[in-house]
């Protein structure tokens, strides 16, 4: 499956410490990267008390996914970023590049205009000539090449998991209508027990289609919008943690539990006879 994740702006509403807010967002980033999420959407909780938190959450998630050597250029120093040093590294491929260049290596870069020509900062202490069209200040994925003994680079597409894109968006129903995922799964303690829907989820998880997995905060998703509204959008509402022993499962805890289950279900579906369906 092509995993898309949606979390609410109220994710950190009940967390007052900057340290804890940053750590909590960092745990979301780690969970998303562990399970190879393509996209994270931070949607507006219509009952939320601090709607501007969506932009903060999205920026920290984006910061976490950015290679360390590009962060100073892409994220100006701000008061709300003073605790980002608490974030645990994601350890995804674009973060694991050395100072030594290798022909054929794919890297993340930021373009710079020098003397009327475009160059790329690829994190090796010097700029590489950039072959192609672009705009100064733009972040781009490049491949390193050589020409007459000199290194240069041009735009390329990653060939391995490269991290996630982040967007701050309006409410969850509006997100579903605009993004139009192939499948939409709402996680809720009031949903259908996993044991009753695992076959359908297995088909979804083993497909190559987009799957939007939505998570709540201290408010469940069914408190934010009526069940009927989600169902009208084709949502599958699932209780992934039946019989939970605590009053509330935190978002970051739910993500690990749910995405782990989806990965296992995907492997089961892929191994089943006649695998390769569309999850219907």
From TrEMBL:
Keyword field: Methyltransferase, Transferase
Single annotated GO MF: methyltransferase activity
Pfam families on file: Methyltrn_RNA_3
Name of this protein: COG2106 Methylase
Domain of life of the native organism: Archaea
Keyword Zinc: no
InterPro entries: Alpha/beta_knot_MTases, NA-bd_OB-fold, Put_MeTrfase-C9orf114-like, tRNA_m1G_MTases_N
One GO BP: methylation
Entry annotated with the keyword Methyltransferase: yes
């Amino acid at each position: 499956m092509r995993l898309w994740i949606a979390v609410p702006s109220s994710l950190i509403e009940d967390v007052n410490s900057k340290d804890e807010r940053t750590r909590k967002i960092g745990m979301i980033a780690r969970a998303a990267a562990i399970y190879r999420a393509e996209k994270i959407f931070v949607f507006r909780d219509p009952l939320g008390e601090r709607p501007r938190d969506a932009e903060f959450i999205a920026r920290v998630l984006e910061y976490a996914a950015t290679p360390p050597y590009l962060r100073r250029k892409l994220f100006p120093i701000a008061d709300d970023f003073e605790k980002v040093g608490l974030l645990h590294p994601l350890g995804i491929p674009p973060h694991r590049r050395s100072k030594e260049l290798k022909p054929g290596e794919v890297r993340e870069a930021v373009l710079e205009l020098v003397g009327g020509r475009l160059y790329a900062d690829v994190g090796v202490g010097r700029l590489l000539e950039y072959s192609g069209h672009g705009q100064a200040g733009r972040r781009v994925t490049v491949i390193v090449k050589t020409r007459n003994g000199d290194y240069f680079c041009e735009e390329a597409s990653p060939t391995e998991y490269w991290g996630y894109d982040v967007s701050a968006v309006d409410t969850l129903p509006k997100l579903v209508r605009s993004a139009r995922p192939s499948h939409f799964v709402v996680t809720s303690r009031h949903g259908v027990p996993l044991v009753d829907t695992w076959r359908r989820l297995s088909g979804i998880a083993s497909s190559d289609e987009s799957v939007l997995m939505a998570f709540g905060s201290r408010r469940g998703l069914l408190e934010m919008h009526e069940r009927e509204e989600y169902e009208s959008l084709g949502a599958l509402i699932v209780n992934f943690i039946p019989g939970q022993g605590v009053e509330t499962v935190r978002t970051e805890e739910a993500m690990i539990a749910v995405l782990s289950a989806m990965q296992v279900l995907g492997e089961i579906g892929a191994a089943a006879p006649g695998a390769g369906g569309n999850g219907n």
